[in-house]
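Practice record 12: protein with pseudouridine-5'-monophosphate.
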Amino acid sequence: MFEMRYSTEVAEARDTGAPIVALESTIITHGMPYPRNLDMARQVENDIRAAGAIPATIAVLDGVIHIGLEMVELEQLAQTTGALKLSRADLAAALAMGATGATTVAATMICAARAGIAVFATGGIGGVHRGAEQSFDISADLQELAQTPVTVVAAGAKAILDLPKTLEVLETLGVPVIAHGQDGFPAFWSRESGLPAPLRMDDPAQIARAHQMRAALGLPGGQLVANPIPEADEIPRDVIDGWIAQALHDCAGVAAKDVTPRLLARIFELSDGASLTANIALVRNNARLGAAIACALVSAIP
Ligand code: PSU
């Protein structure tokens, strides 16, 4: 019915049972400017390979779901200005229209699950936007975590969001939120949000077991692994908070799918690029942990 195409190395990994880590593409097309987006995408793929797993960057190209991109496809996507931002609501429509689009966390989870990939690394998930009591703007990523069995490694939720409300919604939806290596819930560019994380695990093998236990219990959905940005790369809370407040002010009136990309772009300008450097560092860190979890999952399979 729909076409799903595997990159050469992902097809090989599927044949041999090698660990695979999914990666999203919205971060490439809507989250970072060219050419740093391409450098980031390549680096992250190499980090996963160096950690003993195979990267599968997921995107929709001309109506075909790609699980893993060949180098030329990645280069083209990184420069495409007209790519759609595809979430759960528009994925099927994009396939029907033969469109090209990047997949958000939600759409990447859907495609990864269809391809039998259990682990996915990204920067930060979407969540409850500030002022959601008025705008009702809540990312579809949260619902997806509640229903699609993929473990998502992120540096928490982006600090542009309302983090307490994001954690509340995740709790309501029954999504395990597991901080890695610390007690607090990380805030994307900073290690601490000031909020405690509901769960903590320091061992990738334990995170892999929790993933398997959830399936064994017959529970739908995945888990969110909240992995703090490395200390050397973090932006102090008070510094980033100033830029976030300014960006929220400057982007007032922006709605729906445009909110997150516009806020990220404005914070990039205000921080003179520092936010992007930190963003790249945290994605790479998440890719490494994702690879460790994927490796543990493969070795745990009887
Ligand atoms: N992580 C990043 N940068 C990003 C994203 C994640 O470091 O741009 C993307 C993901 O694709 C996520 C999306 O799903 O931001 C959230 O968008 P929204 O708030 O519109 O759901």
